[in-house]
Amino acid sequence: MEISQVITSLIMVLIASSGFWAFIQSRTGNKSIQTQMLIGLGHDRIVYLGMKYIERGWVTKDELENLVDYLYKPYESMGGNGTAKKIVDDVKKLPMRSLNVTYSTESEVR
Fold it and tell me: What b/e sequence results for 52-67 when a residue is b if at least 16 CB atoms lie within 10 Å of its CB, and e otherwise?
């Protein structure tokens, strides 16, 4: 018996074993649960922030960028649904304002 036949036989036994498939399923199942949790958290945050902006009636450029680029796009890529898309689309229609925030230096605070 050649070494290649032995290796092929061992690989076939490994693939056919139920333990191997249980391991594969457990690994993919955990990722699926993690993905579902991330989608849920993303959805919750998108809806929460989006509704706050809609209630307020305006959005800043930074808020919109954070909502779309850092929350909605990854959420959509992971398989998120259209509910968040509707809210993001509504936020995009809001008037844009800037926050004229000035930060004090430490010497000015004293």
Answer: ebeeeeebeeebbeeb
